[in-house]
Write a structure and sequence with these properties.
By secondary structure, the protein is of the alpha/beta class. The protein contains 13 helices and 7 strands. Helix 3 links the parallel strand 2 and strand 3.
Length: 330
């Protein structure tokens, strides 16, 4: 089955494409957003994804739609990627964070605790895998990842059980790890979600440095968007939504942006973004009934002003172990 895009109408409305504009879809995935944007105006869409499978799909779509330009790469790197595609600024950027159904459905990608596959969880093709995380990290670091990225209350118990078990045999498959977590948490007991949901999400976010990617993409967007340019971001995790909210509020010069770098209101730099609404847009009841994946999605929008970039660092808001310390085994 394909990927059902979340908050699609709301994203197209916020992106507000016009004829002749250049838009970035930083998370091409199954191309749901890109297709709708291309249909809404005679614009160009630069479709980025770090996953080669997604870019191969985009390549096929681009054979029929020359206004789509597929680009393999990470959205944190979008300034360089957009320049290489021949543009120095763009009119709108959208990000739809997380994994696609294509990635979840392919057992060999190792994202799913419902399908047995190798413990990989990488969106790209290189770097440490989920197996490297659970087989190499010390118990404290594992617990930190589960607690901070998965909001897993039993983080320490799970980390301890992983470290004990791997002394006998390293983890190699998704069901092996999911089974152990289920054992530690005492089975499903009628719960709506699988007991491994939070831990798998945490490992995936860590392996792909998802918060770091978002921080760098937010910084890049301030440089890349032209005046009037729209930044349209869909998140699925409270930490990500918080980062986006704080970034937009800070750049819009609103108090409560949480930055220690900004002077008091009134004597700070001119706002580099406006926020048409301070509130996040949430999926409608109708969408929730049709697509349970939309449950935790939040959409936030900001519009670039003419002011120079503030150029302040964006923080992920959490301290995590260093991914680069791990040795990639495959
Ligand atoms: C939720 S899906 C996007 C679905 C898309 N909006 C659609 O309508 O089909 C997220 C996609 O973003 C990609 N992705 C996640 N993080 C990325 C990053 N840092 N750089 C580039 N692509 C990324 C994933 O590989 C995945 O294909």
């Amino acid at each position: 089955m394909g990927h059902k895009p979340v908050l699609l109408d709301e994203v197209v409305t916020a992106m507000a494409p016009k004829d002749g504009e250049v838009l970035v879809d930083g998370t091409y995935g199954g191309g749901g957003y890109a297709r709708a944007l291309l249909a809404a105006a005679k614009c160009r869409v630069l479709g980025l994804d770090r996953d080669l499978d997604a870019i191969e799909r985009a390549g096929l779509a681009a054979e029929k739609e020359p206004r789509l330009t597929p680009i393999l790469g990470r959205f944190s790197d979008m300034i360089r990627l957009v320049e290489e595609a021949g543009f120095s600024s763009v009119d709108a950027i959208t990000l739809d964070l997380g994994v696609s159904s294509f990635q979840l459905d392919q057992a060999e990608r190792g994202f799913s605790f419902m399908r047995d596959g190798p413990l990989v969880m990488r969106m790209g093709r290189s770097g440490p895998s989920a197996a490297d995380v659970v087989n190499q990290m010390d118990e404290r670091d594992l617990a930190t990842i589960f607690f901070r990225l998965g909001e897993e209350k039993q983080s320490r118990r799970i980390a301890r059980a992983i470290v004990q078990r791997r002394l006998k045999a390293p983890f190699t498959t998704t069901l092996d790890l999911a089974g152990l977590i289920e054992e530690v948490l005492g089975g499903r007991r009628g719960a709506k979600t699988h007991p491994a949901t939070r831990s798998f999400q945490a490992i995936r976010m860590f392996v792909n440095d998802e918060l770091g990617e978002l921080a760098r993409a937010l910084e890049a967007s301030e440089h890349l968007l032209s005046e009037g340019g729209r930044l349209v971001i869909v998140t699925f995790h409270s930490l990500e939504d918080r980062m986006v909210k704080l970034f937009m509020r800070e750049r819009a010069g609103l108090q409560g942006g949480g930055s220690r770098h900004l002077p008091q209101k009134g004597d700070g730099p001119r706002p580099s973004f406006d926020m048409p609404s301070k509130k996040a847009i949430e999926p409608s009841e109708a969408e929730l009934a049709e697509n349970p994946r939309a449950r935790s999605s939040r959409l936030r929008v900001a519009v670039r002003t003419a002011a120079p970039a503030m150029d302040l660092p964006v923080s992920t808001g959490v301290d995590l172990p260093d991914l680069a310390r791990l040795e990639a085994s495959s």
